[in-house]
Amino acid sequence: MSLRLLLLGTVIGIAIGVVVGVAGAIRQYKVSDYVSTVFSFVLLSTPVFVLAQLLKFGGLELNAAAGTTVLYFQGEVTPSFQGSAAAELLDRLQHLVLPTLSIALGQIALYSRYQRSAMLDVLGSDFLRTARAKGLTRRRALFTHGLRTALIPMATLFAFGFGLLLTGAVLTERIFGWFGMGDWFVYGVQRQDTNIVAIVTLFAAVLILISGWLSDVLYAALDPRIRIR
């Protein structure tokens, strides 16, 4: 359950965050850059439990405006749900939207700030000027050479973001009633169950080790100076 929720939220957060960060760097000091910067800082300074409650209020308003239940706020699926496979899939998606947004919005704000900074570092680099001098258009030079280089320092951030997926959304799982790894860890602490706490801690440690390896793989894939043999 944790994987389905957090993987989707993190992938959306990374993808949109990278796009927003790159756009902000390319259009530095433009209106769109200021707007994305303000929204990013607002989201980064908003606690997860506050953001989740605001999303719930927004969902309530949407349901009231639609005159029917468009979004659900608790659990993975409606209890005792009966219907076709397509209807069940739709019900699960309706439960998935709000908790996914609560994760994705924070990720978008975080990754967009890092990506903007990394992209600004390469915009005035010599290799981009050389690419333009060889006849490449600005767009192609930026996205073929500049973006790939700007993603290299982000590799570690991406890797460890994925590595801590299953243990990194305790508040989101608690607020939206998703019984995942984080919620299970809180349950273990509340019940003073050392076995649960030890298992989750060990699992998190293994994920961090895997993240370190994944970081190296991403570096090798993104850095044109490195060839995997």
TrEMBL record:
Topology with respect to the bilayer: Multi-pass membrane protein
GO process terms (BP): transmembrane transport
Keywords linked to the UniProt accession: Cell membrane, Membrane, Transmembrane, Transmembrane helix, Transport
Primary localisation category: membrane
Entry superkingdom: Bacteria
Transmembrane segments annotated in the record for this chain: 6-26, 38-55, 150-176, 196-222
Localization: Cell membrane
GO cellular component: plasma membrane
UniProt-listed InterPro entries: MetI-like (IPR000515), MetI-like_sf (IPR035906)
Domain ABC transmembrane type-1 intervals: 1-215
Family statement drawn from the similarity comment of this UniProt entry: Belongs to the binding-protein-dependent transport system permease family.
Protein name according to UniProt: ABC transmembrane type-1 domain-containing protein
Organism from which the protein derives: Pseudonocardia hydrocarbonoxydans
Lineage: Bacteria, Bacillati, Actinomycetota, Actinomycetes, Pseudonocardiales
